[in-house]
Amino acid sequence: MSKNKSGTGLSHFSRLNQAVFLHQPSIAKTRTSQGPDLILILGWMDAQPRHIAKYTAGYEKVYPCARILAITTSSVDAGFRTTSANLNRVKPALEILYTLPADAKLLVHFFSNGGAVTNTLISKAYAEKTGRPLPVSVQIFDSTVGRASYEATVRAFSLGLPKNMIAYLLGVSILRMLLGLYILGNLLLGKEDLVEAARRALNDKTLLDLDTPRLYIYSVADDMVAWQDVEEHAKDAKRLGYTVYMEKYQDSGHAAHMLVDAERYWGAVDRLWNTVS
User: Which parts pass through the membrane (predicted)?
Assistant: First the structure.
């Protein structure tokens, strides 16, 4: 375990490996504290620590006694690494989750389809090892769950490309070719797309307990995850028996709702938590 460098945006977090960061609060949690014991934040694809820090800072303010685990997911992680390699990426987080006491209060907040894929990876690994769902108190679906559309996937992966115009255009061309090959390979092999697999897993009661309420934060203006896809997933969740809350923005961009109206955003998060505290 090493202290993080200030340039990453999570200077007071310990870096457990290249993708996992841990914050230990300076304020001791008391028996009467109503906040989470642990907050698990799963960033959107290619979100850097400095981006995730905007959300960890909010959680530190709202729930100062909580430990915070933050995990990054790169486009390489999501699109090209094996399951084994990705399990190794999240291994330090899993080791902490495996040791949680039965009565621990866990808040999970994941962003975009990249965060959804990592959430599914963690949930499946936990269930396979323990024989039960991850003991989540509440879950926040931020700018997710979408569908695996070709153009939306290209836009998502393009966020990690160089800003130089020539390099960017070359990168997009390569992305389109690789994505086409990926889709063709899935069709030939009968494999399910990662996003569709995550979409299905996030409504699987063997992975996510029906007693865990969830909040969808999404926007009509999101150009990567369609609001209709989010509402369809939420409707399916309600039909299955999950308790669902919705926070629908009109003009915020992808994974940027907090930047448009922070008071509304954190108010929705806190109201969700208060349903179980």
Answer: 165-189
